[in-house]
Amino acid sequence: MKVLLQRVSEARVTVGGETVGDIRTGLLLLVGLCRDDDEARVRQMATRVLGYRVFADDMGKMNLDVQQAGGALLVVSQFTLSADTGRGRRPSFSSAAEPARARVLFDLFVDALRAQRVPVETGLFAADMQVHLVNDGPVTFLLES
């Protein structure tokens, strides 16, 4: 599982010109699910994301997580994050989770985040989406499990 985590001052995702998810201060999470991912790995990643300290405290240090900062999450499934880009000039998607399994795991990830009472918005799974964001910092981390 790969999650590209971006600290944002605002982010939204649109499908066909219509906004389907919109947040202000928080984290944009682009999520790639791999063939060997399972429920335990997904729950572990949700815990890790929620505890990841990327927001500034009173001293300007990255010591606050998204809940402590009063932020929200915008979670977007991104199949291409699962690509193997180690060789050649064309990505291979053989390591990506099958779409039906990826959807189950993505929904589980979103549910695990929501269970911690953090505001969560999402894109539409497997849709052609446009993601708009203002990366605050910029701050971007790739989390892998």
How is this structure best described in words?
Keywords: Cytoplasm, Hydrolase, RNA-binding, tRNA-binding. Belongs to the DTD family. The protein has helices spanning 39-51, 99-114, and strands spanning 2-15, 18-23, 26-32, 55-56, 62-64, 72-77, 120-122, 130-144. The mean pLDDT is 97. It contains two helices and eight strands. The longest helix has 16 residues, at 99-114. It is globular and about 45 Å long.
Give a short overview.
The chain has helices at residues 39-51, 99-114; strands at residues 2-15, 18-23, 26-32, 55-56, 62-64, 72-77, 120-122, 130-144. With 145 residues, it is of the alpha/beta class. Strand 6 (72-77), helix 2 and strand 7 form a beta-alpha-beta unit.
Order of helices and strands: EEEHEEEHEE
What is the mean pLDDT?
97
The total strand number stands at: 8
> Major sheet, described briefly?
6 strands, mixed
- The CATH homologous superfamily is called D-tyrosyl-tRNA(Tyr) deacylase
Briefly note the CATH topology name: D-tyrosyl-trna(Tyr) Deacylase, Chain: A
Task: Determine and state the CATH class.
Answer: Alpha Beta
Low-confidence stretches: none
Strand content: 35-45%
The total count of helices amounts to 2
The secondary-structure class comes to alpha/beta
Measured as a percent range, the helix fraction is 10-25%
Net shape: globular
Number of domains: 1
Amino- and carboxy-terminal Cα gap? 5 Å
What gyration radius follows from the Cα positions, in whole Å?
Answer: 15 Å
Give the name of the CATH architecture. Answer: 3-Layer(bba) Sandwich
